[in-house]
Design brief:
Helix content: under 10%
Largest sheet: 2 strands, antiparallel
Number of helices: 4
Shape: rod-shaped
Strand order of the largest sheet: 1-2
Structural class: mainly beta
Distance between the termini: 20 Å
Length: 722
């Protein structure tokens, strides 16, 4: 409107010059009076700062749009790839589809999105190479879990009795094992017993819930005293064993044998109840008798073991040697060497004749050993009846030499010299507990005949080292280590191996190949397409060929119409338009301010309703456009001085506006408001100019030629810009 005012002032000046003959002012030679945004000098506009063009009608742009756009009326229209009021900022494609941040022209996508414009939805961390991405969700391989398949899972989910961390179960305090399925025992049985399903089975010498209380084993079986210093049994006389449950042996087997429950088992070379007697070599080959470890050979034999035959003493001159071994004695002589006088009746074959005297066998007597007797004459503790001892009360044995046990003995016991002793293979106070073979070799503890082996040992006597789970029956245990049969693996041979070791294209778990991405088949040897190219493509030569309307490496994502015309991003086949565009393919521009609801938007241009104008239909129009005799200010006509009326159509005949006065007013206001533009910009400077001219121009209307229109020096320009 200021341009129109300047033009009107020039017309008034020209009209006055024509009427009065005054010389035309050179200021009227500038186009559009420099649009009120500059000063005319010699017919050329010198624009105020911030304005340009031949008539100063266009605003300048900041930084000349940084050489990345073109300027129109103060607004930069940036080239593709740049944005900002001065086109200095690199932009990103599709504004990163609202799924990322733009950094120096490149999109930094949020997790779950990828691509140059962050428009492609992905799985987090590409499923960490431990799963397959399906519909943007990770389908994890066995043994892995989490949103991105990066978390190792635990066996049996730790049986709900522990916490899983990175594939390892951290069990609750009352459970243990790889999967927390085994109940623990209090204080781990104090390492003095073994734990079975949460219950401690204490080794001998310990008791209580956690086997922490030391005791003497079996309370010394009632045959000894428990030492409280070291909880060992001091056995009564006649008893032995760690729990005093075994009968002692006479003279401790003379240190030439070992004792078991009262019976001596002698070392080689010793014999007798107490292993105190020496044995003879080869038992004298039954051709002599043993005396103190030396053989006394029968007359017809000689040698250390009586193994060499001979005719003893050359038959003493009282007989004939036959076959160099046997003496045939002369009548009246006897003996192997015929050196002895013969005995009556040859001792009845019940004794040995020596020098005419019979030495009768046990149970026989008489000069010729013909009279039967009882052994040891019943030791004076019985009567001999029919050559058998009938023992007195309280005695027993074939010769009544042993004391009997009053009241008899229990099962699994026998009576020995007045005391009940356990039969071999039994122990305990009442001989009701079975002993264990080889005392479990120190690798377990014995209970009632059965060995309970410690971990790592097995067998009836705990003598065998064993492997975990006995190698599951699918391998051989060598030195406590499983050597698996072909087709099996694992520390206990419990897992099956996989065909061709999955061809190095996957991993094996218990006989099943879990193939890596791009491979399939029982042994992962067959190359495949990701997700079988479903739902929108076909697998050709191991590559997905997508059908029209589908995209992505596995043809799982729908494409959008016209690729959203570059004005939005594609969300599974549907365009999400940027704010300035609309339509199914984002090809239709939006209008500025939606035409302020005062017009119709067509292809990005507002077509305003009657009574409204401007690029966004936000400005009220004036009637008849003020008839070109004034300017419109938001629906109200501000008429030139010689016009009036709502549309400036009423011409006022006798209005006199001196040209010099009007020009001085305009020039003075431009000069006064120039510094406002420099400090505060276009808006405040325009406000300053309008206010200034409103104060000085009315003084020119109807005045005489002496009024020059000069702006007073003390005019408050600052208040005008407020």
């Amino acid at each position: 409107m200021h341009a129109r005012l300047a033009a009107a002032l020039c017309l008034l000046a020209l009209s006055s010059a024509l009427k009065t003959g005054v010389e035309q002012q050179e200021d009227c030679d500038c186009p559009n009076g420099c649009s009120g945004n500059g000063v005319c000098s010699n017919g050329v506009c010198k624009c105020a700062p911030g304005w340009t063009y031949f008539d100063c009608s266009l605003r300048v742009c900041p930084s000349t749009c940084s050489n990345h756009g073109f300027c129109f009326n103060g607004t930069c229209h940036c080239h593709p790839g740049f944005k900002g009021p001065d086109c200095s900022v690199k932009s990103c494609p599709s504004e990163c589809s609202f799924h990322g941040a733009c950094r120096n022209g490149a999109c930094v996508c949020r997790p779950g999105w990828s691509g140059d414009d962050c428009s492609v939805k992905t799985c987090p961390n590409d499923c960490s190479a431990h799963g397959v991405c399906k519909n943007f969700t990770c389908d994890c391989d066995p043994g892995f879990g989490g949103d991105d398949c990066s978390t190792l899972e635990c066996p049996n989910d730790c049986s709900n009795q522990g916490t899983c961390y990175n594939g390892t179960c951290y069990c609750q305090s009352t459970f243990r094992g790889a999967d927390c399925s085994i109940k623990t025992c209090l204080n781990d049985c104090s390492y003095a017993g073994f734990c079975n399903d949460g219950v401690c089975h204490c080794y001998p010498g310990f008791k209580d819930r956690d086997c922490s209380v030391k005791v003497c084993p079996n309370d010394c079986s009632g045959h000894g005293v428990c030492s409280k210093d070291n909880f060992t049994c001091k056995c009564d006389a006649g008893w032995t064993g760690y729990d005093c449950a075994l009968n002692a042996c006479p003279r401790n087997c003379s240190d030439h044998g070992y004792c078991f429950n009262g019976t001596c088992y002698c070392e080689v070379g010793f014999t007798g109840k107490a292993c105190s007697d020496l044995t003879c070599p080869a038992d004298c080959n039954h051709q002599g008798y043993c005396v103190g470890g030396s053989c006394v050979c029968h007359p017809q034999f000689t040698g250390r073991d009586c193994s060499v035959p001979q005719c003893p003493n050359s038959c003493s001159g009282a007989g004939t040697c036959v076959n160099m071994t046997t003496c045939v004695c002369d009548p009246g002589w006897s003996g192997d060497d015929c050196s002895l006088r013969a005995c009556p009746n040859d001792c009845s074959n019940k004794g040995v004749c020596h020098n005419a005297t019979c030495y009768c066998e046990l149970g026989y007597t008489g000069t010729d050993c013909s009279v039967s007797t009882c052994p040891n004459e019943c030791s004076g503790n019985g009567k001999c009846v029919d050559w058998t001892c009938v023992c007195d009360r309280g005695y027993m044995g074939t010769d009544c030499s042993l004391r009997g046990c009053e009241g008899g003995c229990l099962d699994n016991q026998h009576c020995y010299d007045g005391e009940c002793a356990c039969n071999p293979g039994f122990t305990g106070k009442d001989c009701d507990l079975r002993t264990c073979p080889n005392d479990c070799f120190g690798h377990g503890y014995c209970f009632n005949g059965s060995c309970y082996c410690r971990p790592g040992f097995s067998g009836d006597d705990c003598s065998q080292k064993v492997c975990h789970n006995d190698c599951s029956g699918q391998g051989e245990c060598l030195d406590a280590t499983c050597v698996c049969n072909t087709g099996f693996t694992g520390f206990d041979c419990s897992l099956a191996t996989c065909l061709n070791d999955c061809s190095d294209n996957g991993y094996c778990y218990n006989g099943t190949c879990f193939c890596g991405k791009g491979f399939t088949g029982a042994d992962c040897s067959v190359a495949s397409c990701p997700n079988d190219c479903l739902p929108g493509g076909s697998c050709i030569n191991h590559t997905c060929v997508c059908a029209p309307g589908w995209t992505h490496f596995d043809c799982s994502i729908k494409v959008c119409e016209n690729d959203c015309s570059g004005n939005g991003y594609c969300e599974n086949g549907t365009c999400v338009c940027s704010p300035k565009f609309r339509g199914s393919d984002c090809s239709i521009p939006m209008c500025l301010g939606n035409c302020s609801d005062n017009g119709l938007c067509l292809n990005g241009t507002c077509w305003c309703e009657p009574g409204w104008g401007g690029r966004d239909c936000s400005q009220k129009t004036c009637p008849n456009d003020c008839g070109n005799a004034g300017w419109c200010d938001n629906g109200t006509c501000l008429c030139y001085p010689e016009y009036a009326g709502t549309d400036c159509q009423v011409h006022q005949e006798n209005v006199h506006v001196p040209v010099k006065c009007a020009l001085n007013c305009v020039h003075g206001c431009l000069g006064k408001c120039a510094h406002v533009y420099s400090n505060d910009g276009v808006g405040p400077s325009r406000q300053c100019y309008v206010q200034c001219t409103r104060e000085c121009l009315p003084a020119c209307v109807g005045s005489d030629d002496t009024t020059d229109g000069t702006v007073p020096a003390d005019m408050n320009v600052a208040s005008m810009s407020a």
